[in-house]
Amino acid sequence: MAYRHVVGPRTWAFADLAELMAKATPVRSGDRLAGVAAESAEEGSAARWCLADVPLREILARPLIAYEDDDVTRLILDTHDAAAFSGVAHLTVGDFREFLLTATTETLARIAPGITPEMAAAVSKISRNQDLILIARKCRVVTRFRNTIGLPGTMAVRLQPNHPTDDPAGITASILDGLSYGCGDAVIGINPASDSVAALGKLLHLLDEIIRRHAIPTQGCVLTHVTTTLEAMNRGWPVDLVFQSIAGTQAANAGFGVTLAILKEAHEAMLALKRGSLGDNGMYFETGQGSALSANAHHGIDQQTLEARAYAVARPFRPLLVNTVVGFIGPEYLYDGKEIIRAGLEDHFCGKLMGVPLGVDVCYTNHAEADQDDMDVLLTLLGAAGCTYVMGVPGADDVMLNYQSTSFHDSLYVREVLGLKRAPEFEAWLHALGMTDAAGTLLPAEPGSPLLADASGLAA
């Protein structure tokens, strides 16, 4: 079905919904690379006007990838909640934006199961940054494992203690450093340098020992492939969260070596362990705009819409955490700070609108046209938007993955400026150790802190 929009003497034509949505997307390098971007600002503007008039029912009825060709499409349509959708089914994309701007938190929670990723992506494309912030701030997604993530007025931090050789002493030092800054309530999550099962076992036991010894109300995760984590669970090793990178098409997920069936198996194995003390949200997914294009699995669809489809993969597994590693893939997909900032706000908005606990790795690679000032801007905007969690990396420089993210002290900044708290159980633990005052403000470290007293033994 072709779409048309008239501007003055000119009629702009778009062959189908996929082309219309791609041309309506704010400019970014990945869509230019894929040959799907608008060729001019005028064409992009016309596409957004045209998209605003498309009914949500039409988006539901016209899958961008055929049902019979893609298991993510089948998942989206087979799990669609028609009752939740009924309250907005009569709206166009433009009407939907107006509806979201005035909707309450309760209304947004009620409609979330009925919002497909294509609907979320479509409305994001016609929204200003301030719309993305305001609407996402009202979306509330709360999850629990050993603490409570996503409560109003909170922003959690993943403590990311990566080491280029998986050295236990180096990892332990980073963990204790991060904890002393009050980070780690989202998860203590290690990206391992090695994919071996033996290396995974050592890291899992290290995390488990630190968390148990200090009774930290958080969870650990080694971000290895889901099949390796399944092997660890089969061996009886201490697995808290099950991690996997996911994407928005069947072919892109195949590039990650994962299927929906494997994710289901891992989810069921995680539930059987019953390691969560407060809840059973035990899955952790990472995504990123451009992953499908980099695997040549994008089907001619723009990267932001495909990113939203990844959240549809995550949603049925009720994850504790999902995050977009927004600038990690590189400038081929998000060229500069402006594109990274816009993408981070879009991703957070779409995930939250769909009922997914979206966090953002506010990051960039060293060959992108971006710097830490850009990341400060995005971090602040995400804090205002109610972002679920961000990263805490020593010095903001990940020495294993070789990219720039947010540091432990960045979390202190955003919490002080915006009045954000940690997960309540984690906040209470810090206060009980004498590391914060009653308001959650970090206190000067004491030489005899119990957290640091046995650090050498943990790293042995």
From TrEMBL:
InterPro entries cross-referenced by the UniProt entry: Aldolase_TIM (IPR013785), EutB (IPR010628), EutB_dom_2_sf (IPR044939), EutB_N_sf (IPR044941)
Compartment(s) of residence: Bacterial microcompartment
Binding-site list for adenosylcob(III)alamin: 192, 244, 294, 400
Cofactor annotation: adenosylcob(III)alamin
Tree of life domain: Bacteria
EC number: 4.3.1.7
Keyword vocabulary terms for this entry: Bacterial microcompartment, Cobalamin, Cobalt, Lyase
Binding site for substrate: 158-160, 191, 286, 361
Pathway(s): Amine and polyamine degradation; ethanolamine degradation
Reaction(s) this enzyme catalyzes, per UniProt: ethanolamine = acetaldehyde + NH4(+)
Note on how the cofactor is bound: Binds between the large and small subunits.
Main location: other
Known role: Catalyzes the deamination of various vicinal amino-alcohols to oxo compounds. Allows this organism to utilize ethanolamine as the sole source of nitrogen and carbon in the presence of vitamin B12.
Family of this protein: Belongs to the EutB family.
Subunit organization: The basic unit is a heterodimer which dimerizes to form tetramers. The heterotetramers trimerize; 6 large subunits form a core ring with 6 small subunits projecting outwards.
UniProt cross-references to NCBIfam families, sorted A to Z: PRK15067.1
Protein name: Ethanolamine ammonia-lyase large subunit
Organism: Methylobacterium cerastii
The encoding gene: eutB
